[in-house]
Design a protein that fits this description.
There is one protein chain. The chain is 28% helix and 25% strand. The chain is of the alpha/beta class and 441 residues long. Strands 2-15-17-16 form a four-stranded mixed sheet. Helix 7 runs parallel beside helix 9. The two termini are 22 Å apart. The structure holds shikimate-3-phosphate.
Length: 441
C-alpha cells in the first residue's frame, strides 16, 4: 500500500518514458519470425513484454540482453528462426497479465505444425478470447477454450493449413487485427481485416519494415482496413522503440494539472492511431507542443507540456467521438481525471471495451473518481464526467491494474489530503520506474 500527498510546487524537468509496450511486444514476435538477427533498442522491460520474451524462448528463439550495450544503449538481440523455425514449447506458454502476448501469439501458434496451450494470470483467464478464436478458426485453425468459456487456457492444435480471410471486426481492436494478420503470414491467399475505425497499426508498420507486403487501406466496408499479401520472407533488422505515449500520458496530465509546471517528455511515439489523447487535449485548450518530430519507421517527437486549464466547447460540453476512442483507449482512465478537473461536462462515448481490459476500467474509474469527490457516472454506454469539483484524497482500489494505479497516483497530486493505492507494484506491468520518474520531477 502506498500513501501519497498532494504536491504544493510546480513539476519541472524533462524525462524519457520507457519504450512503447505494443511496439516492444511486436519487436520480439516479428524478429523471432524473421531470418537473421534483430537488435532492439528502447525495449520496454516491463513484466508484460518479458512474458513475450519468455514465451518465444520457450519456442526455441535465442533472445539476449547485451551485457555490453551497443553504442551505450541497452540492446535486446533476437536471433530469428524464420517463419517456420519455431519449436514445440516444452509446456504451457504462460502470458502473465498480457493480453497482447496472448492474442497475438494465438495468431502465430494457430499456423504452427505443433500443438500448444496458452494461459495467463487471474486477469487473463477472465478476458474474452472468442474475438481471436472466431476469425482464426475461420481461417482453418483449431483453437478451443479448454473450459469452453471462451477464455484461457486456449488449446491450439497444430498442423492446420490456413487460408486467407476477409474479416470484418465489429470493434476496432489491434490485438484481434494483429492476431489475424500474423496468422495470415502463413495462409494461402490474401488476408484483409476491416475495422469500424483504425486501431493502432504497429503490426502493419513493423511487418512492412521487415519485408512483408502489407498496407492500411480505406475500404468499401468501412473506414479502415489492413491488407496482407503473404509469401514474402521477413528479414531481421534494427528496431528503435520510441517512448510509450500511454506512459507519457500520466506526465502530460500531471504537467497540465499542477499549476506552473513545465515538463518535456522526450522521444515519444506519436503514431496517429495512438495519439488521440493529444488531439483531444488540444481541443480542450491544453498547452502541449510537439518538438523535434521525426518519422523514422514510427513517428515520434518530444512533447512539451505546460500547465493549462481545460475547457469544453462554447456550450460547455465536450464529447469524444467513437472514432477517437481506439486511438486513446488506454488513456481513458487518466483522461477521466483530467476531465474531472475541466470546466465542462465531458462525454466519452462507446466505452464498452474498457470493461474487458486488465480490469473493468469503467467500474474502476467511476468508483475511484467518485471516492475522490468527482461527479461521474455511466449512461447509455458513455462515461459522463461533470468537471470542476475539487478532488480529495481517497483509498484507491486499483484491482491489480497498472493503468488504474498510475492514474490515481497522478490524481493524488492535486487532491486535498492523503490518497492510498492498494497495490502500487502492479505498475511493473508497463512502467517499472513510474514512481522514481514521478519523484524525479
Ligand atoms: C494493444 C491494443 C489495445 C490496447 C492494449 C494493447 C496492442 O487492446 O488496449 O493495451 O498492443 O495491440 P485492444 O486491441 O483489445 O483494443
Amino acid at each position: 500500500m502506498l500513501s501519497l500527498s498532494p504536491i504544493n510546487r510546480p513539476l519541472k524537468g524533462d524525462l524519457f518514458v520507457p519504450g512503447d509496450k505494443s511496439i516492444s511486444h511486436r519487436s520480439v514476435m516479428i524478429s523471432s519470425l524473421a531470418q537473421g538477427s534483430s537488435q532492439i533498442t528502447g525495449f520496454l522491460e516491463g513484466a508484460d513484454c518479458l512474458s513475450t520474451i519468455a514465451c518465444f524462448r520457450q519456442m526455441g528463439v535465442q533472445i539476449e540482453k547485451s551485457s555490453r550495450p551497443v553504442n551505450g544503449v541497452p540492446t535486446i538481440t533476437v536471433h530469428g528462426v524464420g517463419l517456420h523455425g519455431l519449436r514445440e514449447p516444452y509446456g504451457t506458454l504462460y502470458t502473465g497479465n498480457s493480453g497482447t502476448t496472448t492474442r497475438l501469439m494465438a495468431g502465430i501458434l494457430s499456423a504452427q505444425p505443433f500443438n500448444s496451450t496458452i494461459t495467463g494470470d487471474s486477469s487473463i483467464v477472465k478476458r474474452p478470447m472468442e474475438r481471436v478464436m472466431k476469425p482464426l478458426n475461420s481461417m482453418g485453425a483449431s483453437i478451443e477454450s479448454v473450459r469452453g468459456t471462451g477464455t484461457c487456457p486456449l488449446r491450439i492444435e497444430g498442423g492446420k493449413s490456413l487460408h486467407g480471410i476477409n474479416w470484418r471486426n465489429e470493434v476496432a481492436s489491434a490485438q484481434t487485427k494483429s492476431a489475424i494478420l500474423l496468422a495470415g503470414l502463413y495462409a494461402h491467399g490474401d488476408t484483409v481485416v476491416h475495422e469500424p475505425a483504425f486501431s493502432r497499426n504497429h503490426t502493419e508498420i513493423m511487418l512492412r519494415a521487415f519485408g512483408a507486403d502489407i498496407h492500411n487501406d480505406v475500404t468499401r466496408y468501412g473506414p479502415a482496413a489492413a491488407v496482407l499479401h503473404p509469401g514474402m520472407p521477413l528479414f531481421g533488422r534494427s528496431i528503435n522503440v520510441p517512448g510509450d505515449i500511454s506512459s507519457a500520458a500520466y506526465f502530460i496530465a500531471a504537467g497540465l494539472m499542477v499549476p506552473d509546471s513545465e515538463i518535456l517528455i522526450r522521444n515519444v511515439g506519436i503514431n496517429p492511431t495512438r495519439a488521440g489523447i493529444l488531439a483531444v487535449l488540444n481541443q480542450m485548450g491544453a498547452n502541449i507542443t510537439l518538438l523535434n518530430e521525426n518519422n523514422e519507421v514510427e513517428p515520434k517527437a518530444d512533447i512539451l507540456v505546460k500547465s493549462s486549464s481545460l475547457h469544453g466547447a462554447p456550450n460547455k460540453t465536450f464529447e469524444i467521438s467513437d472514432k477517437l476512442i481506439p486511438t486513446m483507449i488506454d488513456e481513458i482512465p487518466i483522461f477521466a481525471v483530467l476531465a474531472a478537473t475541466a470546466d465542462c461536462k465531458t462525454i466519452i462515448n462507446n466505452i464498452s471495451e474498457l470493461r474487458v481490459k486488465e480490469s473493468d476500467r469503467v467500474s474502476g474509474i467511476i468508483e475511484n473518481l467518485s471516492a475522490m469527490g468527482a461527479d461521474c457516472y455511466e449512461e447509455n454506454g458513455a462515461l459522463i464526467i461533470n468537471g470542476g469539483k475539487p478532488l480529495h484524497g481517497a483509498n484507491i482500489k486499483c484491482y491489480d491494474d497498472h493503468r488504474m494505479a498510475m492514474t490515481f497516483a497522478i490524481a493524488s497530486l492535486i487532491a486535498e489530503g492523503t490518497t492510498t493505492i492498494d497495490n502500487e507494484e502492479c505498475v511493473n506491468i508497463s512502467y517499472p520506474t513510474f514512481f522514481n520518474d514521478l519523484r524525479s520531477l
